[in-house]
Automatic annotation (TrEMBL), chain A:
One of its GO terms (cellular component) is nucleus. It comes from Coemansia asiatica. Belongs to the glutaredoxin family. Monothiol subfamily. Monothiol glutaredoxin involved in the biogenesis of iron-sulfur clusters. Binds one iron-sulfur cluster per dimer. The iron-sulfur cluster is bound between subunits, and is complexed by a bound glutathione and a cysteine residue from each subunit. Residues 1-110 form the Thioredoxin domain. The gene is GRX3. This is Glutaredoxin. PANTHER family: GLUTAREDOXIN FAMILY MEMBER, GLUTAREDOXIN-3. Transmembrane segments: none annotated. Gene3D superfamilies: Glutaredoxin.
TrEMBL record, chain B:
It comes from the Eukaryota. GO terms for biological process: [4Fe-4S] cluster assembly. The lineage of its organism: Eukaryota, Fungi, Fungi incertae sedis, Zoopagomycota, Kickxellomycotina. It holds the Pfam family BolA. GO terms for cellular component: mitochondrial matrix. It comes from Coemansia asiatica. The gene is uvi31. Belongs to the BolA/IbaG family. This is BolA domain UV induced protein Uvi31. PANTHER family: BOLA-LIKE PROTEIN 1 (PTHR46230:SF7), PTHR46230. InterPro entries: BolA, BolA-like_sf.
Amino acid sequence: MSIPGNVIQVQNEKELRSALEEKSQEVVIFFWASWAEQCKQIESVIDDLATKYSKTQFFKIEAESFEDISEAYEINAVPTVIVAKKAKILARVEGANVAEVVQQVATNCGAANGVGSQQSAAESSSEFKQDLNTRLKGLIERAPVMVFIKGTAAQPRCGFSKKIIGMLNEQNIKYGYFDILTDEQVRQGLKEYSDWPTYPQLYINGELVGGVDIVSEMTESGELIEMIPEESIAK
Amino acid sequence: MSTLTTAKPEGPIEKIIRTRITQQYSPTELLVENESYKHRHHAPMQGVSSTETHFRVKIISDKFAGMPLIKRQRDVYALFKHEMQMDGGIHALALVTKTPEELKKK
């Protein structure tokens, strides 16, 4: 995918400052860090928005390399997206809140791009939902046996998550895990996607098996191990 | 129909749990235990004043016959969708869902 001309990876401070001073139009500034996984998702949202709002400039800044700018905008966390007009901050979205980023860009930059802010927010909102579902599906299918827990497999942060990991380990089952405490979007989105209100959640070959109670029953009855694909059983 | 009552007084949420499950499943056995006190000091529970957040529920009912485990539990969770989504509502609902035959086998 070629990068549109209105997306600028900031290389030096002057670049950004002069762009802001020259333009009386709104700009979008995206602060990221390479160690923050969620920035990747927001970056693709930014790229997407840039193609729709082609008259607006989208700046990407590696927060830690530009401390003065980060301080000036009071950046506390990444990802953070700021919509600014000259010296004024019109909107600030902290964290991987895709819906909010889309909404703020639509509201503040819609006019300049000749796009009605209401309409584009609704369109983008359903696209966002599609993107989220795609992401969730990808996560669920990341491994033949996939478990969504609170905490990590080595350090579960909840009794139920700890119990489910214990049962998988005892039966020599190889699995992938995802820590839902690290991602609020997945945490809430997956509950809706799978119509299951709690964590942990176990999936086998992309299908929800259930939570700790079901896994426990199936472990006792011997049913669980029968559902596990051969390649996921450690020899 | 036999029910076991817990030692602590029944709060409003516990009452709702018993009532709805009884109505829906006409259970031959229903056990509802409020385990909130066990989780009171856990980080996610800081600032939550409710004493009805974690429950352990055991339902023995014919209505589960022929239903896969996941459907049984989804249906039970669906009964409490509102209470599980609201602030200070039900945070965890541990479930045992069996038919009388299944209970005997154990």
